[in-house]
Amino acid sequence: MANIKIEMSKEQYETLVESVFLGSWMVNSTKMELDEAFEDVRELVLSKYKEGNLEDRITHHEQLGVHDLDVDYESKLLATYVEEYDEFSFWDKLVEKLVEKKMTELYGPLEGNMTEEQMEKRLELEEKIGRKLEETGVTKLSFDK
Fold first, then answer.
1. What secondary structure letter does DSSP report for 117?
2. What is the pLDDT of residue 95?
């Protein structure tokens, strides 16, 4: 296997550290056992922290043989990116699931490609439900006529 060398600025390395942390967090946050391929890459990237002058953000646990982000730095990344993503994806998924429910009520279980009429109805429902959620939020959500 050929080795790949990448030269980057301190700022690019910092962005790589953040990207690798967030990516491995996303992959592993819902699993009982860590995905070792992601963990290996994470460890490799974090192990270069001294070269990237990130001693204030990355620590090496010699007993465990692993590198980790500083707790405050990790919390900042989670608050900045994950919480924003979760908020956006929650509303997006909620609209999607409510539309699927309504489409099944109207047309029965949808299998295969939708008809032109079904696609138009889906878009109409997405707009209507999305608008309703923006107006009422979840706490006052009702679809009674």
1. H
2. 93
Query: Do the beta carbons of residue 140 and residue 132 sit within 8 Å?
Result: no
Residue 35 DSSP symbol: -
Q: How far is CA 118 from the centre of its chain?
A: 30
- Determine the number of helices (DSSP H) and then strands (DSSP E) in the chain: 5, 2
Q: By the 8 A CB rule, do 5 and 48 touch?
A: no
Phi, psi (5° rounding) for residue 4?
-115, 130
Task: Quick: pLDDT tens for 70-88.
Answer: 999 999 999 999 988 888 8
pTM: 0.70
Q: Name residue 76's amino acid.
A: K
Q: Length of the chain, please?
A: 145
Structure tokens, 38: 């992601």
Structure tokens at 52: 């990237």
What is the gyration radius of the CA atoms in the chain, in angstroms? Answer: 22
CA distance 38 to 23: 8
